[in-house]
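pasting input
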Amino acid sequence: MNTVNALIKQINGLKSELSNKDFLLTWEQTPQELQQVLAIADALKTLREENIATKVFNSGLGISVFRDNSTRTRFSYASALNLLGLAQQDLDEGKSQIAHGETVRETANMISFCADAIGIRDDMYLGAGNAYMREVGAALDDGVAQGVLPHRPALINLQCDIDHPTQAMADLAWLKEHFGNLENLKGKKIAMTWAYSPSYGKPLSVPQGIIGLMTRFGMDVTLAHPQGYDLIPQVVEVARRNAAESGGSFRQVDSMAEAFKGADIVYPKSWAPYQVMQQRTELLRQNDHDGLHTLEQHCLAQNAKHKDWHCTEEMMALTKGGDALYMHCLPADISGVSCPEGEVTESVFEKYRIATYKEASWKPYIIAAMILARKYAQPGAILQQLLEEGQKRVK
Amino acid sequence: MNTVNALIKQINGLKSELSNKDFLLTWEQTPQELQQVLAIADALKTLREENIATKVFNSGLGISVFRDNSTRTRFSYASALNLLGLAQQDLDEGKSQIAHGETVRETANMISFCADAIGIRDDMYLGAGNAYMREVGAALDDGVAQGVLPHRPALINLQCDIDHPTQAMADLAWLKEHFGNLENLKGKKIAMTWAYSPSYGKPLSVPQGIIGLMTRFGMDVTLAHPQGYDLIPQVVEVARRNAAESGGSFRQVDSMAEAFKGADIVYPKSWAPYQVMQQRTELLRQNDHDGLHTLEQHCLAQNAKHKDWHCTEEMMALTKGGDALYMHCLPADISGVSCPEGEVTESVFEKYRIATYKEASWKPYIIAAMILARKYAQPGAILQQLLEEGQKRVK
Amino acid sequence: MNTVNALIKQINGLKSELSNKDFLLTWEQTPQELQQVLAIADALKTLREENIATKVFNSGLGISVFRDNSTRTRFSYASALNLLGLAQQDLDEGKSQIAHGETVRETANMISFCADAIGIRDDMYLGAGNAYMREVGAALDDGVAQGVLPHRPALINLQCDIDHPTQAMADLAWLKEHFGNLENLKGKKIAMTWAYSPSYGKPLSVPQGIIGLMTRFGMDVTLAHPQGYDLIPQVVEVARRNAAESGGSFRQVDSMAEAFKGADIVYPKSWAPYQVMQQRTELLRQNDHDGLHTLEQHCLAQNAKHKDWHCTEEMMALTKGGDALYMHCLPADISGVSCPEGEVTESVFEKYRIATYKEASWKPYIIAAMILARKYAQPGAILQQLLEEGQKRVK
């Protein structure tokens, strides 16, 4: 329990306003706030491993709103709620985009009378997902101000069009574990690179989340993609500014090999070009199935020109000592396993398979930490209480 | 906690047989029983606000059976179960009408081995919903008598073809809160009126629930609708009898303006005529899609003749002091917001938006109160125990 | 509580390796292990009836994977999880058969970070269901060995292509209750016989589970079916061997009347011939809708030749004293009730209706017992602890 005590001490020493704001983009949080979430997640994971229950809620609902299919995120969120003592309740709105205005305002209040957390995943429509979350947040604030809601539920961004903060923070927690501490990440080279996949339309939020967050801790971040596979320009600008402020660096290259050279960490993953996502958003809004089909055909043909963006043994040999840490948010498109040709070869993936599982295992704790930080101005004190009460999770 | 103590005292002083019967129609309960449910709901809401947990069940299932789509009622029921410590489990029968007889009897028992509550929403088929609930109730009674079930789950009517008791009781709880107490409702004028909506086929259970319940407390209830938009005649008869017994009044008029004149409370809401619901039930049973389409077209044309049944500023000006309390079960059809022309103008709705949210916020507590009253012969004693134990809901 | 104390003493006296292996087929467990599960189930049921909570988990998830529709098993599993303090989380993979290899390995780990139990129902594909469960089990073992998972979730077979262990064990628990104890089952005659049903393609796992389990306790087991309605030959071989070892007997006949003669217990139930299930599996894999339709027509015609395999009063009159115990996993095809002609007449079913409900009521406790036995090397000690703590299930 020395670990937990040390973490609590660290948490108490960090200045944080997280109990007064939603964690919707990592770059809206201060470095100390990010560190606090990491430390809370670590404490919760350690308590769990020590068989100490972390149920701070004795009843209460956690709402989930998933606007596309999801297994991993759904289970991570469900696990986080369960860790804290909340019961999950799914809001099934259909997969169509929700009307804004009165509907959002009303629904947000109607589902929240007994809710302590609302997790939203909305990454299909460029320009809409994060905006929708803010609209929900404002409705909840209003509900509290008007005396409709007894308290403000934590709003959790489970992936939007701009960022995927629970993924990026889980990835960072994994890097912290792998390299020992955050300090050790300074000067580490990480390559966030596009990779070929036989599908199209994968969201931008993972690469954007990675370059938006990893540039905060003095790392040397390289973004690599074929020409035309841009991310949202404003997010790239955020990454550039972050790097300058944190004492790290940020650069863009158009070659996977170039990005891999000397890298400590590689994150090869497919995504759709920003411009394509804009067109796709428009076509989805218009329900233009023919247009969507034509766009898909065009993009798949375009993708097929870049099959050499493939994380192979040869590519890995270019990295530092030939054994950079391979990362992926999963599921990866593994050549010859989940598809004929994909993002990564079977032999590379197999070597890092367990590492990617451990990377993923942080997500429930990151989400739980975000909820805890939003609900308690003194999260250290509540963890201290859990530790002292020492209720067994399993008899 | 003085509030809760006073409520417990009140609860203890009320004569009630609610632990021995299902609460399927408000008019089958005595005035004291209705008051008891209101007082229990109030106590539960206050305990929650004071951060005292109300988990009387340490494990147990609450089953939900929804035979049509529902967000609000689903969340209210889930919240009620969670408040009491039960886990929700959904019985998904598809949306087709369930066979009766052996299937009902068997299913009711199969899902209830570990169940403490069963909530059913079945409002599509006139003559069937409430009857189905009674069939389930009889099967549960038999299961207990035969030693199959260890105890009788509470059966909750989450809306049927005849009544919507959780809605009507939540509405009444809101009126009690708004006007200070039940006594103050005596002599208040409430207008339950039809209003235009661009959809057809909205159930009769809300207006029927309102006239069936509000006539119990000495209110002056006016039911208003265009000619032909009748409710189930037997329910209108119930309202008439109730009013006579409670010292209030009940009248029917065919003009919204007439109903609004001098009203303290207005409840403008669309519904489908009783005769149409009968035809619709028959067509649904026969799976006659063409017939349903023809009926819908006919009804929409009929509705369109009554667009002047619209809750406008001018209409509101007719009410007492020009500021009657506007009520709605939500979602309302708001002209220019959720539809081009609807039940209420945006300006009227906006003025009462927060009021309608507060009205809705009672539903989880009303449902929880109904479960509590069904499970405990001495609900006051169990509330007293919760109060004394004082377990925190949130650490 | 004398009952529970006696059961705990019995549990402590039984040698069991159940905490180190999954309970995937009853014939892979020793007689003492089977007895231990029965005794744990009995203790849990008694504690529940005595209003003592059995929540050994203070938070934790139980995952469900249902590859076909299910109401009864779903509710039994949900009830078992709830009894133990776990929250249910459904993995919805769609109904298509899951890819094997990496996908299984990855998914098994991804859903298990906070899971204590995984229940799988996969009975559609002959040769695949049980194999899939073992693949999941191996992935979980690997996850624990690699440090990805903090502990090994219990894997529960909720029905596969070979066995239906939770059903067969619940049936055995019911027989133990009905006849007083396991010892009394020695020499009892049980007839597991095919019966006519207007549907085809019912799985083999129930009759296979029954002959595979009931032959363990010295019963005289008769398997009866029309020519060509074979079960999986290897399972019939298992039953034969079991009977030889337990001092009971096993025989096959091709007449329902022959099987019923002098029987103490009858279990008339439809199933599809083994060879048909093989063809069906192949056609399902090929997505051959025409082929499936042709096969169905052929089988229904074949079935129709055997409408005399009908559990009638006359047939029952052949049994011991004319009043053998009728068993069924439910729902039964009741002639004139759920179908024109089926497995059993209304009058026979009605006589044993409550008995079949009681039979079914054991399933939640059997599943909970399997989870408990998998998680605790000393299940008796944990039951002792529950008894001593004596936390009320309902206040």
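fyi Strands of chain A lie at 61-66, 87-90, 115-122, 154-160, 189-193, 220-224, 249-253, 265-268, 325-326.
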